[in-house]
Structures are given as structure tokens and as C-alpha cells.
Write a structure and sequence with these properties.
Keywords: Calcium, Endoplasmic reticulum, Glycoprotein, Glycosidase, Hydrolase, Metal-binding
Radius of gyration: 25 Å
Main location: endoplasmic reticulum
Number of helices: 7
Family: Belongs to the glycosyl hydrolase 47 family.
Largest sheet: 2 strands, antiparallel
Order of helices and strands: HHEEHHEEEEHHEEH
Organism: Geodia barretti
Helix content: 40-55%
Strand content: 5-15%
Structural class: mainly alpha
Number of strands: 8
Strand order of the largest sheet: 1-2
Shape: globular
Enzyme class: hydrolase
Length: about 200
């Protein structure tokens, strides 16, 4: 299992499959509970990490945040608190936070990836700040893959598949195709023949 796959629970939430998201999240959180971090790779057969590095990735926190938003179950606040406590205890340094070189020994590297601030910290903040504008008006915002918040333009919510507009789109497309075909035929290198 790869640490990046911890984001799959978030995808399941966004797809509306909350029950499966809860199960997926539980698997990754059980690994976190065991090591107070999520290894880059975990061998489910041996039940041991085979890449023990932890670069402060956000995927489990993002899934925790979205599950809390979807369910309002206080369990996910507990999970967030546990993650925050582990980060403070094992990765905090005098000038920031450090990547764990080995999750079993908690040895640190002099390195902090930018996604720790832009995603991991942001999702933890939003998890606990329930009155934040992003949480209050979540339908108006979308997160990029790097955790940046973008406000959606209401015009983007136009659904071209609606019954009234779909027919017009279809006619516009047919007209455009007809113009392209006419242009192609009139500029064709092949002479119109009497075949």
C-alpha cells in the first residue's frame, strides 16, 4: 500500500460513497495509530512498512477532513487531534517540522516539503475551524491537487445537459459541423466529378 493512496477515501467521499470511504480511511488510520505516522509504503501481507519514510504527506488528513465534512462524526475530530499530536511530538523542530526518515525510530531529516504547509496544515486547520468560510460555503469552493482554495464562478455550475439547453447545444454543434464540411468540400483538392 502506498501513502498516496490514503487520498482514495477523499475521492470516495466526493463520489458519495461514504460507507466505503469510512472503511478505506480506517485501514490507513490503523497504520497511523501503530506508528504515529504513515509510511510511504506498507506491505499488507507482512503487516510491516517496507519504505519507512514519512514526508509529512497530507492525504490521510485530507480524507479525515472530507469525512468529517460529510458525516459530522466527532470521531474524525479525534483522528485529526491524534494526527496533530503525533506531528507535534515527532516532527516538530525549533524552526518548523521535519520529515521522518524512519517512522519506527522517529529519526528526522532536515527537510520539510511545501505540501506540508499548503495541504497537511491547511486540512488540519479547516477540520477544527468549522466556522471557516470555506466550510460554511463549501459548495462555492474547490481545492486544487495542491490544496489551494479556488472560489467557483456560479456560471461554471451551468449544466449543459439540462433538457432546455441540450437541444440548443446539439443544434449549434450540427451547424458548426456543417460549416466545416462545406469549407472542406469547397477547398478540396479533389475535383467534383461525374462519377
Amino acid at each position: 500500500m502506498d501513502a498516496l493512496s490514503a487520498s482514495f477515501a477523499a475521492v470516495q467521499v466526493l463520489a458519495g460513497d461514504i460507507e466505503e470511504a469510512i472503511c478505506t480511511h480506517a485501514v490507513y488510520y490503523s497504520i497511523w495509530r501503530r506508528y504515529s505516522a504513515l509510511p510511504e509504503r506498507f506491505d499488507w501481507n507482512t503487516k510491516l512498512p517496507n519504505v519507512k519514510f514519512y514526508p509529512l504527506r497530507p492525504e490521510l488528513v485530507e480524507s479525515t477532513y472530507l469525512l468529517y465534512q460529510a458525516t459530522q462524526n466527532p470521531f474524525y475530530l479525534h483522528v485529526g487531534s491524534d494526527i496533530l499530536h503525533s506531528l507535534e511530538k515527532y516532527t516538530k523542530t525549533s524552526c518548523g517540522y521535519a520529515t521522518l526518515h524512519d517512522i519506527t525510530t522517529k529519526t528526522k531529516e532536515d527537510r520539510m516539503e511545501s505540501f506540508f504547509l499548503s495541504e497537511t496544515c491547511k486540512y488540519l486547520y479547516l477540520l477544527f475551524d468549522t466556522d471557516n468560510v470555506v466550510n460554511r460555503y463549501s459548495a462555492q469552493f474547490v481545492f486544487t491537487t495542491e490544496g489551494h482554495v479556488i472560489q467557483l464562478d456560479p456560471a461554471l455550475r451551468h449544466r449543459p445537459w439540462d433538457k432546455d439547453t441540450c437541444h440548443d447545444c446539439f443544434l449549434d454543434n450540427r451547424r458548426a459541423i456543417a460549416r466545416i464540411n462545406e469549407s472542406f468540400v469547397s477547398h478540396s483538392a479533389f475535383p467534383a466529378g461525374d462519377n
